[in-house]
Write a structure and sequence with these properties.
Blueprint (H helix, E strand, L loop, with lengths): L2 E12 L7 E3 L2 E3 L1 E11 L4 E6 L3 H4 L3 H16 L7 H8 L6 H19 L3 H5 L6 E3 L3 E2 L4 H13 L4 E5 L4 H15 L4 E5 L6 H11 L4 E5 L7 H10 L3 E4 L6 H10 L2 E6 L1 H4 L2 H12 L4 E3 L6 H12 L4 E4 L17 E3 L2 E3 L12 H7 L2
Helix pairs in contact: 3-4, 6-7, 7-8, 10-12
Length: about 375
């Protein structure tokens, strides 16, 4: 199955009217200003991926993604066989940076491969889970009352785990976690994400109190460069450190695993695609460190792709894909299905999705 074209379509979708834009300690998202990647194969087959620009993390914008596809990757990929994953990965990695461009193209190539072979992608990746993955919502920074209300609503939908954004004022962060714990009870797992927003003093002060609220993990409590601080947290407090911004590449993951502070690795399909995600997940398994599929606020295409990535491997224990529920609309004919705290994967070949042409025309820019 040869690649005959690669297309990049920018689009914009807003949050639901009753949802506040996502906020974390160092930024936020007002709407989905993303890019649909379509890899065209022979016989009319198409594979899809979603590129999500996050300038403060990867330096990419919606425009830069489109330009990278048109000027760097399109010509290089035309004529390649989608079954040659290593060769395609080598082409994608020739141009450093461009994280979400490469990730989305890699997803689209694997979607096309699955369609060509007639097999759902998660089965090609390993098929560990039987077509569904557990999902965790992100509770973004807002008032305590709004955060508690949102937490309760997700628990009522069947979610068993909550991720709470913190990392601003440590006292307010602790008050927030305590309020959510009182509202949802002791049976719901809670972990927090500081997005590197604390210094050492704030982190130790807040986390020592959050442990009393049964918080089991903290994501990026300190700046990525503060290796000694993370080691001290890992050795002092009964809480796992989940790393995200500090483990963008396979090399980053191996470095952090050797240092020994990390307890969970966040794998984000939009930035590492399928091939590099597999390398990260299997490397972490060698160190007996589990992985979680993180979110970059994907819409339908990216959410389903990340779910397939999470369903393929034994070493993936969680996903953060419930954030999809905050979007007002989607490009897909059939939206992702959530049931009792799980995302149910479509059983069609590849990603098992279909793009609605009317929706694409409505939201493209």
């Amino acid at each position: 199955m040869k690649v005959i074209d690669v297309e990049a379509v920018p689009f914009v979708i807003s949050y639901r009217s009753d949802v506040q834009p996502s906020r974390w300690s160092t930024g936020g998202i007002e709407k989905a200003e993303h890019v649909l990647i379509c890899v065209h194969g022979e016989d009319g087959l198409k594979g899809y991926g979603e590129a999500l620009p996050r300038p403060t993390f990867y330096g990419e914008t919606q425009k830069s993604i489109v330009i990278a596809v048109e000027e760097l990757y399109r010509t290089a990929l035309i004529g390649m066989d989608v079954l040659d994953s290593e060769k395609i990965s080598d082409v994608l990695d020739r141009y450093p940076g461009n994280n979400t461009v490469r990730g989305a193209i890699d997803v689209a190539v694997h979607d096309l491969k699955g369609r060509f072979l007639g097999v759902p992608l998660y089965r090609l990746l390993g098929g560990w889970r039987d077509g569904r993955v557990p999902v965790t919502p992100n509770i973004s920074i807002k008032t305590v009352e709004k955060s508690v209300e949102e937490s309760v609503r997700f628990v009522e939908m069947g979610m068993k785990t909550l991720k709470v954004k913190v990392g601003t004022d440590p006292k307010k962060d602790v008050e927030l976690v305590r309020a959510i714990r009182r509202a949802v009870g002791d049976d719901i797992d809670i972990y927090v994400d500081a997005n590197q927003g604390w210094d050492r003093r704030s982190a130790f002060w807040a986390l020592s109190r959050m442990v009393d609220e049964k918080v089991f993990a903290v994501e990026e409590p300190l700046p990525v460069s503060d290796v000694e601080g993370k080691l001290k947290i890992a050795r002092t407090l009964p809480i796992a450190i989940l790393m995200d911004e500090g483990v963008i590449t396979v090399q980053d993951v191996l470095r952090e695993l050797k240092i020994g502070a990390v307890g969970i690795i966040s794998v984000k399909t939009p930035r590492t695609g399928i091939v590099n995600s597999r390398k990260i997940i299997q490397t972490a398994e060698l160190f007996h460190v589990p992985c979680s599929i993180g979110t970059q606020a994907e819409t339908g295409v990216g959410t389903i792709a990340s779910a397939h990535n999470g369903a393929g491997y034994k070493n993936v224990v969680n996903t953060e894909l419930a954030n999809y529920l905050k979007w007002s609309d989607d490009l897909l004919v059939e939206k992702p299905k959530f049931e009792d705290g799980f995302l149910i994967l479509p059983e069609g070949p590849g990603l098992g999705i279909e793009i609605d042409p009317e929706k694409l025309e409505k939201y493209r820019i």
